[in-house]
Amino acid sequence: MARIIVVTSGKGGVGKTTTSASFAAGLAKAGHRTAVIDFDVGLRNLDLIMGCERRVVYDFVNVINGEANLKQALIKDKRLDNLYILPASQTRDKEALTQDGVGRVLEELAQDFDYIVCDSPAGIERGAMLAAYFADDAIVVTNPEVSSVRDSDRIIGILSSKTRRAERGEEPVTTRLLLARYAPGRVQKGEMLSVEDVCEILAIDLLGVVPESKAVLAASNAGVPVIMDEDSDAGQAYQDAVARYLGEERPHRFLNEKKGFLGRLFGSGNS
Amino acid sequence: MLSTSNSAAATPKAFELKGRMLTLSVLHLLTADLELLAHQLDARLATMPELFRHLPVVLDLEALQGQALDLAALADCLRQRGLVPVGVRAGAPALAGQAAAAGLGVIELGNAPARRVEPVRERPAAMVVQQPVRSGQQIYARGDLIVLAPVSAGAEVLAEGHIHVYGPLRGRALAGVQGDTSARIFCQSLEAELVSVAGAYRISENIDETGRGRPVQIYLDGEALHIEPL
Question: N or C: which end of chain B has fewer CB within 10 A?
């Protein structure tokens, strides 16, 4: 049986889709058969980030409605053999998602995959609720600013009460924090919340800190998950996060200001 | 939204039971002599035939001061004349059995000289919450509430008794919500959006810096809400 991972946040624009794409690619790179599903029906983005937008024929809603089978709708990634994408429908809205339908699709995927990554839409409405409902694990993507932190707190509350695991009284959804767009320099100037602040407010385990990085936008524009850019700081941060998710212990990096001029000259050249 | 449809939802509801205030005519019986009553009722009916048609009435026997009366015969006498006796005003305990036999209910009227018993409020055991109370969540305790984790901004904790928060209190805390003015709020770090005891409240903006971020207790002294560092 596959493990179902929801990538969620409450707030929009914090990096859910970037994280879903990189996390799914990271799991596939580590040798696990992985499917990533775009739950953002009507605002389809994952296909762009994954660089498969020109190969979309059928989508998630088609499969739910029985207009196509999973094999027809799943798009195989060009770079990684183990990775498949189930795109959202752009012409429909979230009402096209039903709990039974989503449950059936996930169950069928679970026969064939090790991990299923659900890229949640923003908000706490139907799409987000259904993306989270069947989850075994949750990755809460948060930016170091107060509104994002509050929305994440709300989502964590929902994960602990409105998911299938909660309703059945099973072991709760494992919920971990991924702090994205972290800029240590701005934290030092007091312009941003620090990792410690966010962890203290949300009181959940920290899965990773992804620094604010030009590589993310560059990767999005190129349609390549940023984790594939192994030289970039953000790519390495996602690599660490995936390794931690799979049980490896790794120290957190990118928590401090990038090296100065001399450091850049003689350092490892990561920045 | 996420609950699966069940068969109960498909069957339409057959009834609802609701309390309503309504106006009923009360027939004060001044004699136990049913013949006299029948005679006078007939006289009244002769002048105003529509007066009693299907008029529901409650019988008040207080003026009889316990004189013996055949309730069933009385009810029949009224029914024959178009009245609809629905009940008898509560009085002697013996009445209840007779009323039931006559097909009448026993009705407690608002201004009855009933013994008003203050309901004894047994306060239930304290509620203990181990998990963080997240933004958007609301917790209500019928007695005291003890939270062993943070209360996030945007969360709300309410208790009829005291509230203890062994963590930062960042959301709203309302103690004594049913009016218990002796209720208090205790927390390890006051960062609340709002605190209230028995309806007297203070918002974050009006919490001065001496208490902010510190362990405090909050209680009501007369009309004034006090925030006192511990």
Answer: N
